[in-house]
Amino acid sequence: MSKLLPIFFGILILVSIAVGQAQEEPVEDPGLIITAESNLVVVPLHVYMGKRSVNGLGPEAFELHEDGVRQNIAFVEGPPNQGEEFTRTVPTEIIFLIDFSYSVMTPGLLDFQTIRSTMLRGLREDVMISVYGFANNLKRFTGPTRDLAKLQRALDQSFESEAGGSRVYEAIMQTARDAANRGGNVSRMMVVFSDGLSTTNLSPDLVVRSANAFGIPVYPVILGHDRIVERSQGLSGGFGLGRQPNPGNNRRGEPQFGPKRNPRGPLNRQSNARSQENLQRLFAEIGSRTGGRSYDLEVINNKVIRQILGSLSTLAETEYIVGYYPRGVDEELSSHTVEVNLASEEIGKLYGGRRLVIH
After folding, report:
1. pLDDT tens per residue across span 174-207
2. Which end of the chain, C or N, has fewer beta carbons within 10 A?
């Protein structure tokens, strides 16, 4: 295992949120730091034929290119054919990132029993779960674990937390960085429970670049869609509690996300709702842009959460990992685009398989 190389991916952004264990002193974050393994790169992906996973594929089924140049595949790990024994050498971490700003993620929506019954009982022993939460600040409630008591305590602590503001995109970037800094060859997937209404100006494009650099697909679970519909129909009063995003401005080409501002004059409820739905759409698109998918349903309840977690459990079980060794290291560290494709379209359809690496 080579030594991890901490590097700054340009001066993308200095983030002032703190990352730390819930019961420890918070650690000030120095900025966006990307770490990369210099001797091995792993790329997660899925292969489906229709709605069914294609299992038992080996290296001959894939082609891997770095900056358009074909590379030798070192190994492939994935779901075995039925009846075959399989030992996974690259573990999986499922990261839960929970938005607890003003009870966006309400108690009872995601609970310990739901996670245990829909995920832990059926997942491989090498699949771990970590829990983070955020509002203005980011907290790590537990690192990757299968310890039932730790997960129970982490969820309890996340729901006991409540604060104003919602640094959605900063939280995603910093959670990815914190997880990647633990090192090792680990496949990670991040599930973000949030309404997606960020109270800062950070662009979703930067979040996508960061997630792809860390090789972590993001799975947004969009909350509060039903409340936006109700507000647009005048069924509930106000936007309240400082959760109203910036509805845009008059300068052409500027993005319609950002901190809360006081618009001049009253805003039509339907216009406000459309603006918020647009923000949620941008948040949802992070899924497909990072190799994950989004869950954007009009109503989210515990039954729906169970179905979502069941879907994520299936994705963890059917995931492929394609690994390769870069042919050389640049004199000056630079980013490279890695893409995995199927050797033949007859094999099925590939999902994911892209990431940025730095060496």
Report:
1. 999 999 888 788 999 999 999 999 989 899 999 9
2. N
| 257-308 pLDDT tens trace | 444 454 544 456 667 777 888 899 999 999 999 989 999 887 888 889 999 9
DSSP 335: E
Residue with tokens 């340009």: 10
Contact (CB, 8 A) for 295 and 222: yes
Alpha helix segments (H runs only) across the chain: 112-115, 148-160, 168-180, 204-214, 225-232, 269-289, 302-317
Dihedral angle sign, alpha carbons of residues 66, 70, 71, 76: positive
What pLDDT shows up at residue 228?
Answer: 61
**Domains of the chain by residue range:** 88-317
The arithmetic mean of pLDDT across residues 114-118, rounded, is: 88
For residues 41-51, average pLDDT: 93
pTM, two decimal places: 0.78
| Dist CA 167 CA 324 (whole Å) | 35
Spatial separation of the C-alpha atoms in residues 187 and 37, rounded to whole Å: 13
In whole angstroms, what is the distance from residue 248 CA to residue 87 CA?
51
Percent of the chain with pLDDT strictly greater than 70: 75
**DSSP E strands, the chain:** 5-8, 33-36, 41-49, 52-53, 62-66, 69-71, 73-77, 92-99, 127-134, 138-145, 187-194, 218-222, 320-324, 335-342, 349-352, 354-358
Report how far apart the first and last C-alpha atoms of the chain are (Å, whole number).
15
Tokens of 283: 């948040």
Neighbour count for residue 110 (Cβ, 10 Å): 24
Q: Is 333 left (phi over 0), alpha (psi -120 to 50) or beta?
A: beta
Sign of the alpha-carbon dihedral angle for 157, 92, 223, 262: positive
What is the CATH number that goes with domain 88-317? 3.40.50.410
Maximum Cα–Cα distance across the chain: 67
Sequence-separated (6 or more) residues with CB below 8 Å from residue 85: none
